[in-house]
Amino acid sequence: MSSDTIHNVTVSMTVNGRGHTVSCQPRKLLSDALREDLHLTGTHVGCEHGACGACTVLVDGAAVRSCLLFAAQMNGADITTVEGMANPDGSLNTVQQAMQDCHGLQCGFCTPGIVVTLTAFLRDHPDPTDHEIRVAISGNLCRCTGYHGIVNAARQAARGEPASSVEAQSSESQSSESQKLESQS
User: Fold this and answer.
1) For the purposes of burial, counting CB atoms within 10 Å of the CB of 19, is it exposed (0-12), middle (13-18) or buried (19 or more)?
2) Multiple choice CATH, 1-84, 3.40.50.2020, 3.90.190.20, 3.10.20.30, 3.30.420.40
3) Which value, to the nearest 10 degrees, does the dihedral of the CA atoms of residues 9, 14, 20, 24 take?
4) 101 exposed, middle or buried (CB, 10 Å; 0-12, 13-18, 19+)?
5) Where are the alpha helices (DSSP H) in 7-127?
6) Which of 11, 37, 93, 110 is deepest in the core (most CB within 10 A)?
7) In the 8-state DSSP scheme, what is residue 33?
8) Domain edges within the chain
9) Per-residue pLDDT of the chain (185 residues; tens, 9 = 90+)
10) What Cα–Cα distance (Å) separates residue 109 from each residue in 53, 55, 74, 117?
């Protein structure tokens, strides 16, 4: 046997409430183990450098970039992917429903990471300001929406308001900001 042989490691973890054991090379990324070994393809891989946020999952309750972690580091961890975000009856959770109601997605590539990020953020910050919401999602890149629908969705999820009320507040807020800018010029 060559001294260059890399031996697989066995990793036991809980993913979306179910126990899993994965045998993988020590260098395999968590994002790849989730997608390739567990067939949970909702965790998207964009940049593979932790910059885009598409691969965000919860590890022991914390939102993390799964492309920056090795699967071998997850032994004993409790992981939640976007597939585990739905309500027990299969219906959309509050954040997912708000994203749908407020048109917080277009192509959908960034959506899983944003849903996971917002779920963790709103758990810890139940009454955020728009600025706090924007800071919370600043690590999630979206090339389609311009973020207004995502911020509206976060506001709806946090406050439990219907989409039409949230959109009206957003329009008022944007109008107020435009008036401030006009008065400064």
Assistant:
1) exposed
2) 3.10.20.30
3) -20
4) buried
5) 30-32, 94-101, 111-124
6) 110
7) I
8) 1-84, 86-185
9) 556 788 999 999 999 999 999 999 999 999 999 999 999 999 999 999 999 999 999 999 999 999 999 999 999 999 999 999 999 999 999 999 999 999 999 999 999 999 999 999 999 999 999 999 999 999 999 999 889 999 999 999 999 865 554 444 555 555 555 455 455 55
10) 10, 10, 25, 14
Residue 47 identity: C
Q: Number of C-alpha atoms within 13 angstroms, CB side, residue 13?
A: 27
CATH code of the domain occupying 86-185: 1.10.150.120
Distances in Å between the alpha carbon of 9 and those of 75, 101, 163?
A: 10, 43, 47
Angle between helices 111-124 and 94-101 (to 10 degrees): 120
The token duo for 110 is: 């960034």
Task: Read off the tokens for 170.
Answer: 């957003």
